[in-house]
Design a protein that fits this description.
Length: 451
């Protein structure tokens, strides 16, 4: 990665020199009145056509104009050379306040200036309103800056001008244009979703044939869905993305299936923590959900909502304002799921808890059942991986017949048994340990051993 960061640094050094020249020209035009506005367009821009750095590649792939490059550079400067903007903090001597046209905001801990939309306008348009209105297009939702989550203009405080919002580069592209590393968002309140992975393989997944067939159809979409949507006329008839509902008791393989889909298709899976998303404060739930969907847009990610009935449950009658806001949250989420172009998988332990209005929005609903006798027997036989053995008195067929356990419960029982083996310093699973392990699982489920 050092070669990538070195090449990015080389490009940025040239861009910063160009920025300095641009700033000097703006000073001569606006304050000294010694140059005409047209000299800005004549300023020579660094050329990177033969450069292989991430920075040069981003500029070339998007055929960036001089204005777009300046916007990108301004968003980067506070992170790479904040002192470059110190000159924008000089005061207007006539009024003893900073120049309004410079824009910029002081951060809480950052001692430098954070550029705003006004900073962009001052440097590139001066007092030319026609150019100012034209340049505002770079902050529109259909511009590639927004669509690709490269940078954005933060929403200003209520009632304040649109261009007073801070210019922010995304964490993803900040990493890409500096160190060159792949950015993985940190699980926190700004991104309430955690990346999940598995060391297991498809052979470890025990599900019935109809569910496996559905899983294979999801893989088909992951591999060919974009091409069908974008390269064929039929694509106009189908909605973007793919929405799936997994239902069934805990421990039946829902989370493992999602993880294996990501692993086999080389896609990151992010499990959304709904406890961090749902808020009692009006508007906060929508805001938290937006953080996830905005960052996931145009990424090769799978979004996984576990225990989704806590948010996607049946909508209530609107008897008071709280009910109305709760239903608004559901409607907001439905819209974001509708618009998301990737794979969204919702998971619920209880199918009946999901609002019926959701079902028509899913391309697929898969019901994960508890394993049957043959599947339970297979789990008991294969789970030890040949590293441990059952005592000759252990009757696996009887265990599989008598106890209707999920795959996760069987693994928990064997986990308990193998720890007992380690204590004894042997590799033989005893019947007594199996009985104790099963008893513990039944207590967890709120059942007696007899049941």
């Amino acid at each position: 990665m050092s070669l990538i960061s070195d090449s990015n640094a080389k490009c940025l050094e040239q861009e910063l020199k160009w920025f300095q020249e641009l700033w000097l020209l703006r000073g001569k035009i606006t304050f000294e009145l010694s140059e005409e506005e047209s000299v800005i367009d004549q300023l020579k821009i660094p050329e990177y056509s033969a450069d292989s750095s991430n920075y040069a590649r981003l500029i070339t792939e998007n055929m960036m104009t001089m204005e777009e490059r300046l916007v990108l550079l301004l968003a980067l400067i506070p992170h790479v050379k904040p002192a470059q903007l110190d000159i924008l903090q000089i005061k207007n001597q006539n009024f003893d306040v900073p120049f309004t046209e410079f824009g910029g905001i002081k951060g809480e801990k950052h001692r430098g200036l954070l550029p705003t939309g006004e900073t962009v306008m001052f440097l590139l348009t001066g007092t030319d309103l026609k150019k100012r209105f034209k340049l505002q297009e770079v902050f529109e939702r259909d511009h590639f800056f927004y669509r690709k989550n490269i940078l954005s203009l933060e929403s200003p405080n209520s009632g304040e001008p649109f261009l007073s919002g801070i210019l922010r580069i995304s964490k993803e592209y900040l990493t890409y244009l500096t160190t060159g590393n792949v950015f993985v968002p940190k699980f926190d309140t700004d991104f309430p979703a955690k990346k999940i992975e598995t060391t297991q393989d498809w052979s470890d997944l025990v599900i019935n044939e109809s569910v496996m067939q559905g899983v294979l159809e999801i893989k088909d979409w992951l591999q060919h869905g974009d091409r069908l949507k974008n390269d064929f006329k039929f694509g106009r008839r189908i909605k973007p993305g793919f929405k799936v509902l997994f239902t069934g008791p805990p421990g039946t393989g829902k989370t493992l299936t999602v993880s294996l889909l990501g692993k086999s298709c080389q896609m990151d899976v992010f499990r959304v923590d709904l406890s961090m998303v749902v808020s009692k404060y009006i508007g906060e739930t929508e805001k938290n959900l937006s953080k996830v969907f905005d960052l996931a847009e145009n990424k090769n990610w799978i979004l996984f909502f576990d225990e989704a009935d806590s948010l996607f449950g049946k909508r209530s009658q609107t008897s008071d304002s709280h009910d109305r806001y709760a239903n608004q949250e559901v409607s907001f989420l439905l819209q974001r799921i509708e618009d998301f172009k990737g794979l969204v998988i919702l998971c619920s332990n209880f199918k009946n808890n999901i609002d019926e209005a959701f079902f028509r929005r899913f391309q697929m609903v898969l019901d994960f059942d508890l394993p049957n006798y043959e599947q339970r027997l297979r789990l008991w036989i294969t789970a030890l991986q040949g590293e441990f053995k059952y005592h000759p008195k252990v009757d696996l067929e009887a265990l599989a017949e008598k106890y209707e356990l999920s795959a996760a419960s069987i693994i928990n029982v064997l986990h308990y048994c193998l720890l007992k083996c380690m204590v004894r310093n042997d590799f033989i699973v005893q019947m007594e340990d199996l009985n104790n392990g099963i008893r513990i699982e039944k207590v967890k489920e709120g059942k007696s051993l007899i049941s």
